[in-house]
Fold:
Amino acid sequence: MMAPFFKFGLFGDNLGMVVAFAVGIGFGFFLERAGFGNARKLAAQFYFTDLRVFKVMFTAIVTAMLGVYYLSVFGFMDLSLVYLTPTFLAPQMVGGLILGMGFVVGGYCPGTACVGVATGRIDALVLFIGIFVGIFGFSELFPLVSGFYNATPMGQLTLPQVTRLPYGFIVFAVVLMALGGFAGAEWVEKRMAARKVEA
Amino acid sequence: MGDFIKKLSLNGRLAVVAFALGFLALFAGTPYHGADATVNTKELALTMATYADQVGVSTLADWIIQGKADFRVVDLRSEQAYAEYHLPPAENIPVAGLGQSSLMHNEKIVLYAEDGTRAAQAWMLLKAKGYKGVYILRGGLDAWKDSILFPRIPGNPTPAQVVEFARAREVSKFFGGTPQALAGDSTAVPQAAMPKLAMPASPAAGGPGAPKKKKKEGC
Structure:
């Protein structure tokens, strides 16, 4: 049995919906258990007092990367069939900036807003409604921004392609980056906690 | 070493595992297994333009009858269709399995499916993967049925056609087919049944002189 299961026809569109539902429930559950339903905890990372978002997300990235890499190396999945979002450099930089600002101001990103709504938080509900207002507004204005939306297309890019470095090297570099990031995050959190005590 | 690990927290141990797996990745190679390829489009276009990418059904039939063994015939259809009927020397490799097949880059490979389309697609895939001697069976299994298994002769044949049909009839018999003799009105002739799979599978052993000698396929 080879992964990705959908591409190899293990299930079709209908069962794919069920699988997506189950995966989504799992994703939401672990976001909630990591404390991501709480806007204060989420926003705390921008003040360097609680870097759990950084740590959880980077842990997920490293775990998924190592898993996918070794499954592919040992022939249990075909990495070339995994969908990659195409890169549009300029619009994605602008979009990232807007999302980041919204994250700081609102205290949620879209996924964690859903988690917050599920646990009945009013602030998350307001942001959740805001997401749909934004989607509607963007869709109505799409003809005006479609030029920029499709600007600087670079196709489906991966770090090994861009850097022309061996795949395994990138894997090791990302692991080192994550471990360094975790150590740095712990150090920053301790410093901020000490400063808080002093103040 | 044991003490070092015992002293570590759970997070520390996970970090050690991640580091070890990351370090091993340096030597574990690429995960893509050659899914990407580049093709020389000019070379391929030239091959197509000169029909150097194709083998006719009668040529292939001759090779089989002569007992040639320097080529492999690949049936790209489904397992089920393959089980019902396939060319005597053919092996079944569905298109999705071409990447993992045992085909060698230096072999002469003849591809066929029902008609030419699927074979042409597979031809392109194999060419992109760097296979040199890949050929499409012109007209596919349809042409094989029409010209080899069930050859016809027109109502008022010329002497040349009669000679040609006599030869075609022998070839047809060799492959267990049914020559459609002197069918002035082709609609009157019902489509003959496909030959049973127990055909002269080993042409070297059977030879044109002994078309009746049958051997079970697959051994």
Observations:
- Confidence is low (pLDDT under 50) at residues 183-189, 199-219 of chain B.
- Strands of chain B lie at 54-55, 71-75, 90-92, 108-112, 133-137.
- The first strand of chain B starts at residue 54 and ends at 55.
